Protein 1
Amino acid sequence: MFNQQISRSAYRIIMLVLLAVLFLAVNMFSNVAFRSARIDLTESNLYTMSDGTKEVVSQLDEPVTLRFFYSEKLATDYGRIRNYAGHVRDLLEEMRAESNGKLRLEVIEPEPFSEEEDLAMSLGLKGAPTQSGDIIYFGLVGTNSVDGLEAIPFFTDEREQYLEYDIARMIQNLSRPERPVLGIVTNLPLDTGSGGLMSAMRGDSLPFMIYDELQNRFQIEFLEQQFQKVPDSVDVLMVAHPRPLDRPTLYAIDQFVMRGGHVLAFVDPHSEVSLTAGPNGEPVRGYTEQSDLGPLIESWGARYDPSRIVGDRKLAQRVQTGLDARRQESDYVLWLAVPRDNVDTNDLVTADVSRLNLGTAGYFTPVEGATTVFTPLVTTSEDAQTYDVEDVKKGPRPDDLIRNFEPTGERYAIAARLSGPVTSAFDGAPKEEPVAEAGAPQPRRSQEKAGPHIASSQKDASIIVFADSDIFDDRFWVRTNSYLGERVAQPIADNAVFILSAIDNLMGSNELISLRARDKADRPFTVVENLRRNAERRFLDEQEALERKIDNAEKKLTELQTGGANENAASGGPSEQESVAIRQFRAELLESRKKLRDVQGDLRRDVERLGANLRFINIALVPLLLAVLALGAAFYRYRRRKARVEKGA
């Protein structure tokens, strides 16, 4: 009997040891075999990497190293950073798994006063100070085999929606050994300023500020405004308010799109920047007041009328109109100050745009039945109307424009993204057009000839069109000062942000361009928000009723005081009617305030009741249900064991 008990005890111990070993073995195996396995149960697939990102990382030719700097120990008390860091690390791990070994990931914890902290600082990362004085690092640095370096200094909440795009763009930039080439077709003096080439040579003129930014980021290649083919070296073609282009040049741009090239086009029905006077008091020689791209824009899926200008009363810029020393200001409906509410914040191009200052702008409408998708990026408000360009050239006064304003109730698209397959606007290569004057030399063209005609785009087109050229004008978006002989820019609008973001976005592959902003990981309490919103509606109704009562009481008081002014002066005090009105006003005011307090009290009670219910469900109900299930399972096992014993007896 004793030996039997010993054997049973030993058997139990051995079973426990084997179970522990099996548990550890299963965990080790799952960590290796299922390291990249994930199940995303979120409504918007927040943690599922898009096909575009998979395409970017799987096509890497050269190795890219990512160093993820995260102060894990210091961030223990900061739940928001800790959760976000987990999201970032999971995404990086998934990218590494999809890269076929080309993406290397290093996770570094820069502790205070360590070599890792010095490394983080030297690579341009920015730390966030804590209340205790320590610095939390939460950033990413990427390098390639040719000493290229890209960095995200700190993962901020504002960019969480664009996390996947930011990392994918970093990887794609590092996969390029050289700076991408930006081809420019323009009749704007971007590189010389408003004075033109001669003024720039004399030192009297300066390049546009946006041109300095473009030079810092891209390799610039200006194309003559008459050419037969866009060079294959051009990654993105920016057409910025060109002079009228002949058919061979339009055909060259058309075929660039057919070959899969990306285009950023700025056209303008009335270019203020082209009319800017230089040092000699006149616009640049050969300026272009109006620009169009002939049949191209419509073949891309949008319509543009160069004879119409859009005005907006709600978005009108304030301009100085007074001719005296008071320098009066007025709303000028033809110059627009576009706020964040009128840009597509879900598009990566306009995600960081808070304000755009534009001059006289046109607009686009989608072509019915087009094969491309027309997505507005910048729109007017509904308080807008259109004008004939010839009427605008007459210089109407701002006050007259406001006085005669008749809104259409329609929102007009000033900028749009066109994506999808397109068909050529030409049946074949056009013949060379004759020269304008007899005996005049043929216009100088690039030596590269157009290849065989392509009727349909080989890839989905990626095109952004903008119906304004004044977005480039320094006067609209930046204030410049001179400090120690250098120009110092102080942006007052995000014109440069839009242009640079658009080019950066189009520089990517079609897979990267297709990425959109993700929903934030933090989900709002929609039920609570609905309760609050409904109560606020009642609150606003009560507030409006209160304001109406106050207005009525004030009108009555004004009438009484005006009618009995002499009597009041003689008696030295308010009349009996005024006293009654004052008492009535006070009673209405107290009653309205009481109702407002009741509404606010109802709001608090509704929210508190919902919170109490949620706490009960999370803290009490779920554990109680689990306990009931466990007791039920135990009772079921007891009944089965008892039944076996009775059957054996």
Protein 2
Amino acid sequence: MKSYKYLTMACLLPILWSGSPELHAKDKEALNQKASPQLIEPCLEPVSIQSPSINRIEPIDDCDGGGGGSTGPYYPPGTPGSIKTPTYTNDSNYRVTWSSGNGYGYSVRNELYQQTNNGSWSKVYDGYGTSKYFTASSGKALKRYRVRSCNSKGCSGYRYSDKMMVNYQPRPNLYAEYSFLSNIDQKATAYKSSVDSYKSALIRDDASSSATFATTSSGERFYLGDGYDLIRGSLKQTCLDVDQANFQITQNTPYEPVTFNVDYVENNDHLAELLDVSASAKVGFTGDDLSLGVSGEKSRFVESISDHDTIRFVVKIVNREENWRLATSADPIDPDFTNNMLSPNDDDAKADFREFCGDAFIDGANIGSALYLVFSFDSKKYSYTEREQKKGQLGLKLGDVFNANGAASSNSELEILLENLQVSISASQVGGPEGLSASVTPANVVDKYNQFLQGTNSSNWAAVEFSTRQYVRPSAYSNYPHSAIFADFTGNQGPLAQMRRWGNISVQHTERCSPWSDYNRSTPSQCGSSQIEISTAMDACRNTRQWADCEHPLAYTTGAISAAYPGVILYNWLNSNVKKLEKTSASDTYDHHVYKGSIAVDDYTCLAATSCFANPYRGTGPGIGKGFEVITYEYDNPKGSGRSYRISPQHCVNSTAYLDTRNWFMGDTTADWHYKVKLEGLCPELEDFVIVQ
């Protein structure tokens, strides 16, 4: 007996009811919120038919709201909405995430494909998840991923990721090569149990791990004598002879107990100075650097980098309560390193010592607390005159409210000004009441500032500043130059100097690439590929064994595996491809006169090039939020239609009107429209990146 399906009255009722003109508005709204608008197919219920002669069309599915029925969906899924990868990573593991395509109420299976070095595509995942972790092999590889969603009716189109660079360079297992390092760790542990540690914003790079950068999170405690990697800005193991009689720690009076400043930020380099960013922390902050673990000083700098349209002030107070100094012998390094690792002109030994002990050791620290408040507001919507006026108002008000001699004065005028200017605050602290900076807002900044001052005490002091001293040659190698024993990071062409240059270029890169999204524009693809190249260049300076490839920006050539073009000088490529948005304007005056007739006005006021676009933050009247202003001197148009304006194309204002005079025997036989259009916009322009000398 064959089973057929028929429409039932119970199934038709929802359809009839939803189409009823008497349906209440709230009921319609509730119905619409339950599902997106779609064709509602009739419900069909199985009915047993005894006669085999009945001839009817048999439906293919049960009612399910439009996506399918008991036998499955009607359509393949939609294309996945997104797929994300890190732009660059030097880690051994990374993650790819995506969103599934619309399955219309049915589950979808996702297929992920991988492309390596622009080669063929291979499937690397087939399942119902939306992410996958990958383990990188040693070396450098350019990766790209695509994903599609599938069901029983087929598969969607592909969603492609941007290209990403995997640059994993595993470090040697030093503990397997040097058995004495375990003894060094034991000595260091015993030493650290007998002296004070200092809370800081630093990170610790653990040489015991095989990962490229096995860093802790920001906020590591350190000890005087700890090693320090000047390029990565990270703590290393204590490698000094802590049992030597001349190894002594003393307490002193800080030279400047309190410093307080309110400063206008001239540029990002100036910002680094105001935020007490050391040379080591300032280098190398492309976007994905944060995932590698960065020091607190570097983090607060990265978070505050912005373009030239952002007005910034830094309010900074530093309390120095104690100063601690380390004195060592003339031969400070633990003799185990001299006897078992260091050897003149041995590049592997130099690299191994640096990876374990760093470039220098910490020999002093000021203990206390510091609070950094970065006040920022976007000046895109202001003219130059208005910008300077607002900047002056904010600077004066901050100076009135905050001071170093006591609590900040509560001031409603400051709160109103911060609200009117839409000021944001980035707060960072070293020491003081834990977690206070994370809760600072424009509405409570004065209260939080006072809480920080009042809540700072000896129980929450931290190292607000520290100093380092370069390692001294062991006396056994006193006849050799320093560079014969240690990896040499110094000099105008040394890795530290090169990293400063690349770090400065990376900041300029951020300044050029970030504003596109601020103006609701797609960021050029050149920004992503160039970030990959800059990160690759900087990683050659981070890793001791890659220092041969740590080159000056004028000499660095992209390799065969390149996100941009292989075999080119990267600096030249950046200058030719990564453009800077510059403000520009155009204005035109028009004079239209008609006598006994009519005219269709179709005027265009355009910026210099088709790549330019109107500034959505500027404009007045009909051009508000569109970037233009219309100044009408005369409009005498008895029979004409109204005037209209629009941005078309993206770099032009199109002004239209229809001027039509009356017949001569009716009186007025003229029509006039005399006006001026001012258009403000931005143009992507080539400008050489500045290299720090």
